[in-house]
Amino acid sequence: MVENRPFLTFLAHLVMVLGVLFVAFPVWIAFVASTHEPGTFLSGVVPMLPGKAGWETYRQILFSGVSASGAPPIWLMMKNSLIMALSITVGKITISILSAFAIVYFRFPFRVAAFWLIFITLMLPVEVRIVPTFKVVADLGMLNSYAGLSIPLIASATATFLFRQFFLTIPDELAEAARIDGASPMKFFRDMVLPLSRTNIAALFVILFIYGWNQYVWPMLITTDPDHYTLVMGIKRMVAVADSDPQWNYVMASVVLAMLPPVLVVVGMQRLFVKGLVEQEK
Amino acid sequence: MKRILMAGLLASAATSAYAQTEVTWWHAMGGELGAKLEEIVAGYNASQDQYNVTPVYKGSYTETMTSAIAAFRAGEQPDIVQVFEVGTGTMMAAEGATYPVYQLMADHGANFDPKAFLPAVVGYYTDTDGNMLSMPFNSSTPILYYNKAAFEAAGLDPETAPKTWAEVEAFSRQILDADAASCGFTSGWISWAQLENFSAWHNLQIGTQENGFASMDSELTLNGPEQARHWENLAKWQKDGIFKYGGPGGGADAAPAFYAGDCAMYMNSSASRAGVMANTEFEVGMGMLPYYEDIEGAPQNSIIGGATLWVLGGQTDAEYEGVANFFSYLSSAEVQADWHQFSGYLPITQAAYELSQEQGYYDQNPGADVAIKQITLNEPTVNSKGLRFGNYVQIRGVIDEEFQALLAGDKTAQEALDALVDRGNVLIKDFVDANG
Amino acid sequence: MQTKRMTFRSHWLPYALIAPQLAVTLIFFIWPAAQAIRQSFLREDPFGLSSRFVGLANYTRLLDNPEYLESFRVTVVFSTATAALSMGLALLLALAVDRIIRANQFYTTLVIWPYAVAPAVAGVLWWFMFNPTIGIFTYILEVVGYDWNDRLNSADAMTLVVVAASWKQISYNFLFFVAGLQSIPMSLREAAAIDGAGPVKRFFTVVFPLLSPTTFFLLVVNITYTMFDTFGIVDATTAGGPNRATNILVYKVYQDGFIGLNLGSSAAQSVILMLIVMALTFVQFRWIERRVQY
C-alpha cells in the first residue's frame, strides 16, 4: 500500500463485501429454494430463509430420483458427470503433453502443419459442428457411452500450447545431458519432463475438470439413455417439462449439487486454479 | 441399435420364449405425465412377454423431435417418436423416413379400426385420402379455468364461466374493482390459444389450401380484421391490467400467476387440469373458450394440440410387429380412459369416452368434459379441422415474437399480424423449396 | 516457430506421440467442420432424404435478411455491455483487494468461485430470481416502483442476460486484474504519491495505463466468451426473446438448425461464426506469441 488512508481501506472492504454478496446471493436463494415445499413457490415470493423440507428433498433427488421430472437419481448423474469430467481431463492432458513434447523436442516433416491443425481446433467451437460431429459419433457406435461423452472433446489446443511454452523454458542442458547419458527420448520424458511439469499438470487439471463437468449441449445430444445422463443437462431437462410446471425445490437442489463439486475444486485448490487460469492465457 | 437388431433377429429366429424384441419410444412427457406414461408402458410389458417397450424421455417436444431427426440421419433412430402437432407438416413431408400408421397396422396389425377414433382428433393427422399417418396419443384443446373464490369475492356467480369476450372483460373489471385479484386473465400458448384456436373457434381461415391440408404450398391468412381486433383488445387489456402475458411458447409464467391467485382466469390446455387441481388451494371452475358474439359462425369448434406417435423407418419387421402390438394396447379403451382421466388429455377413441362416462368420471369431476364438448361442438369446417404447414415450429416462434412486439407497443395488431403472415409465408416457401 | 536448439532424432516417435491428438482433431473437428462448410452450400430437408446444391444462396439470403443483421447488432450490444460490466466490476474488486493486506486471500476465495458454475446453471439461477411471479428481484423492483418484465421488455431481457453472463465472468477478469496490478512496480506508484497525486489521479495516470495490456487481452477474451460460451445462459433465461431482443448469433445458429431444422442456413451461419472466431483467435494469438517472446 502506498499510503495509509483509513477511509480508503474501509471503502475497499466495503467494495469487497458488496462484491461477495453479489456473487453469493443467487446461490443463497437457490439453496433456500431447495429447502422449501414445492407449494411455497406457486403462491408468491420466494422466502429468504431456509425451510424445513431440505433433508427430504435432497434425500429424494439423490437416491430415488424424481421420475416426475424425467430424471434418474442425482447420484447417478453425478457419477456420470464425474466420469465424463475426469475422462476429458485426463484425456486432454495426456494427448496434449505428448504432442507438445513431440513438437518441441523433435524436428520432423509436417511438424508445422501438425501444429496448425491442432491450433485450428480453437476456431471450431462446438456449435459449428455439432450435427456432423453427432453423425461421426453415431457411425462409430459411441452414442450412449462414456467414450462418446468424452473422446470428441479431448483435443486441446490450449493445453498443447501451455505445455509447449513450458517445455521451451526447460533448460536445454537437461536434454543434452540426457542424450550424453544415452537416455532415450521417452526416458527423458518420463524422468525429467513429467516431474518438472507436475504443477502445470495439476493446474490444468483443475481448469479442465471444470470445463468437463460443465458440458451441456454435447451430452444433451448424444445420450438417449438415462443411465448416461449428466447433471448439468439433467437440470435443464427438469426446468422444461411439457404441459407441466417445474418443481422448483428439486430443480434448485440439483442446481446446488451441480455447483458443489467444481466449486469445491476451485476453492480447495485455489492456488493451482489461479495458476492454471492465468498461465493458460500467457 | 445393433443390440436391438440382434435381439430382433433372435426373437424371429430362435424359439426361445425369453428373447424379447426391444422397442424404443422417445417421448417428451415430463412431470407427472411422464410418470404415468412409464406406468402405462410397464403395464404393457407385463401384459405379454414377446416385446419389451423402453420409453426414453428426451426433453421438450422440440428437443425430442430434433434429436429423433438427428438420430435418423445417423441411422440411430428410435422405433417410435412422439411429435407435437406443429411438427406434423415436417413429418408428413418426410416420406420414406416414416412408416405411416395405417400402413403399419395393415401390414402387421391385428385389431385396428381407424373409425374407432374421434374424428375431431384423428382428422388432424390423416392425409387427404383419409389415411391415418400417426397414432394419436395425447391430444388436448385450450379451455378456460377460473378461480371460483375470486369470482365470489367480486360478487360474480362462481358457477358461471364467462361465455363471450365481452363477459371476460366485464368480469375482469368487476374482479379488479373488487380487488379480488390483481389481473383478470392470463393465457398459456398465445399462438395456439389466442390465434390458431381463436380462428377455428370463430370459423376463420388460418391459411389457404384448407389450412394447408390440401397442399404443402399454402399461405397463411391469419391477418384478418377479426384476428386483428382480438389482438388489439389483448394489447389494450394488457395495458389496463386485465390481461397478463405469460411468456412465449407454452407461457411459463401463466400457470403460476393463476395458481398464486394473481389472475382470476386462465386459458390453457385441457391437459393442464391435473396441474391446476394439484397446485391451487381455491376451487376451480372450467368453461369453454370465450368468443365474440357478433362474429358470425362463432362458436364453431376448437382444434387440438398435443402430440402423436410417429413410427420411423429403417427398423426390422420384428420391431414393427412389436410397435403394432403396442399401439393396439395403447388405443384400447381401458388404457385410453385411464390416461385421459389422469391427465386431462382428450379421450382419443369413442370407446374410451364412453367408458369414462360409464365409470361416472364426468359426474365426479365436473368440467372434465368441457374439452371434448368443445372440440365436438359442431361438425368441423375447412377452417376448423386443424392446420398443417411446413416449418410451423418456426412460425410458432414468429407468432410469439410479433405478439411481443405488439404488447411492447412497437406495432399495432394489424401490423404485427401482417408481419407474421409475411414472415410465416417465407418460411413455408423455404419448406416447400427444401422438400419439393 | 520455436523449437529447442537441441532435438532428439527419431523417424517414428514424434508421429506416434502426436498421433492421438491429430486423430481426435481430424475425426471430431476437421471432418465435421468440413461437413458444415459443405452443408452451407446445400439445401436439404431435415431428414436428409434429398439435397441440392444451391451455391451461395444460403449466404446471400442471410445477408439480405434483416433478422440476421439484427442478431448481429444484438450480439454487439450484449458483448459490449457484458464485457464492460464484468470488467468494470472486476477491476473495482481487484483495486479493492489490492489495498487490503490482511484477508485478501479470504476475499479472493469468496469472489472467484462462480467461474466453476456452468453457464446453463448460472442462467437458471438468474432466471429464477427475475421470474415475474416468484422472483425475488422482481419483487424488490416492484417495491421501488419498477415493473420488471423480461418476457416483454427488450431492455429488461437484455439486462437479465448481461447480468447473468457478467456474474459468471467477474471471477476470471478479477484474477487477471489482480495479477496485472501486482505486476505494477510499487516504486512507480510511490513515486506518483510523492509527487502529490491522490489515489484517483494515480489510478488514471499510472495504474490504468500500465494495466492496458491486461485490459486489452481481457477484452478479446470476454468478447469470445460472450459470443460462444453464453449459449447456456441465453437458453436458460430468455431463449432469445422477447421478439429476438436477445437472439445472439450463436443462439440463432442453434434455433435455425435445431428448432427450425434449416440445416443449410444454420451451416452458413456457422461458417460465418467460424470466420469471426478465426479473427478473434488471431488477435489473441498475436498477444500470446508476443508474451512468449519476452
Keywords:
heterotrimer, B: alpha/beta, D-Maltodextrin-Binding Protein, domain 2, 20 helices, about 45% helix, globular, C: about 290 residues, MetI-like fold, about 0% strand
Provide an overview of this structure.
The complex is a heterotrimer of chains A (282), B (436) and C (294). Chain A contains 15 helices and no strands. With 282 residues, chain A is an all-alpha fold. Chain A is globular, with a radius of gyration of 24 Å. Chain B folds into two domains: 20-140 and 305-358, D-Maltodextrin-Binding Protein, domain 2; 142-302 and 391-435, Periplasmic binding protein-like II (D-Maltodextrin-Binding Protein, domain 2, 3-Layer(aba) Sandwich), CATH 3.40.190.10. In chain B, the strands form two sheets. Chain B has a five-stranded mixed sheet. Chain B has a five-stranded mixed sheet with strand order 7-6-8-5-9. In chain B, helix 15 (333-343) packs across helix 16 (350-358). Chain B is globular, with a radius of gyration of 22 Å. Chain C has a single domain (65-291), classed as MetI-like (MetI-like fold, Orthogonal Bundle). Chain C is built from twelve helices and two strands. A two-stranded antiparallel ribbon of chain C has the order 1-2. In chain C, 50% of the residues are buried. Chains A and C meet through helix 1, helix 4, helix 5, helix 6 and helix 8 of A and helix 1, helix 3, helix 4, helix 5 and helix 7 of C.
Write the SSE topology.
The complex is a heterotrimer of chains A (282), B (436) and C (294).
Chain A: H1 6-34, H2 39-42, H3 54-64, H4 74-105, H5 111-120, H6 130-139, H7 146-150, H8 157-169, H9 172-180, H10 185-196, H11 198-213, H12 217-222, H13 231-239, H14 248-268, H15 270-280
Chain B: H1 2-13, E1 21-27, H2 31-47, E2 51-57, H3 61-73, E3 80-84, H4 88-93, H5 101-108, H6 119-122, E4 135-140, E5 142-147, H7 148-153, H8 165-177, E6 183-187, H9 190-201, H10 208-211, H11 225-240, E7 243-245, H12 254-259, E8 263-269, H13 273-279, E9 284-287, E10 305-311, H14 317-330, H15 333-343, H16 350-358, H17 361-364, H18 370-375, H19 392-407, H20 413-435
Parallel strand pairs in B: 1-2, 1-3, 6-7, 6-8
Antiparallel strand pairs in B: 3-10, 4-10, 5-8, 5-9
Helix pairs in contact in B: 2-15, 5-14, 9-11, 15-16, 19-20
Chain C: H1 13-39, E1 42-44, E2 51-53, H2 57-64, H3 66-99, H4 104-112, H5 119-129, H6 136-143, H7 154-182, H8 186-194, H9 199-229, H10 231-237, H11 249-259, H12 263-293
Antiparallel strand pairs in C: 1-2
